[in-house]
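Following up on my earlier thread - several people asked me to post the actual chain instead of describing it. Fair enough. Here it is, all 208 residues.
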Amino acid sequence: RDLKVKEPIECQGVGSPNGMACVQGIHVLSYYLFGGVQINGGSTDWLSMNRGGVFRPLKTTITGATGGAQFSPFSSGNWHISVGAQGLYSQVLKTTNLLLGYGAVTYGTWESQLTLFGGYTINRTDSVGRPINTKNEVILALQAAQRVGENLKAGIEFFFISNFEIVPVLASIRYFDNDLTIDVGVVFSLYKEGAVQKTKTLGEYVFN
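Reply from S.P.:
Thanks for posting it. Predicted structure:
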């Protein structure tokens, strides 16, 4: 194992942050297939900030913008704690303004970790011809990652959302070098106990 190679964005899973702090002076430019471009950087060893956006003039135009900050006040041995806030604007077939406040506790190191993530969202959705819908949700997520090679890391993330019968699951493989990461992942849907068989898929929720 090449110990000289280290993942540059140890504070971030593919779909959610963990409790570890981003390193001061490390600034990462990310490109997501449907999520657009995002810049994430450590202003200090305990404060990081991100911002980004997307515009895709497809058959259904996708527009989005996001920004947030993460504060990491505690790190001792294998235990790490962070809190943060994230804002999101998106417009597909409907317009969504979302604010998320969250906390994350991680046990482990950048090579092998388990994270419990908890958040609360304020979501305001405006669909053409429909009344504005405002709702709040509680989000719980479980994130696990393991280094499986000199330059490879496997990860899985489960998202439990109140009043939502689907449990999105994100499985991923991350290739990393000292200044580069490439994530390849797949999202699939599990259903909570008691969910009706005609519950829409995750894709139908996003694009309808």
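The chain has a mean pLDDT of 84. That should answer part of your original question.
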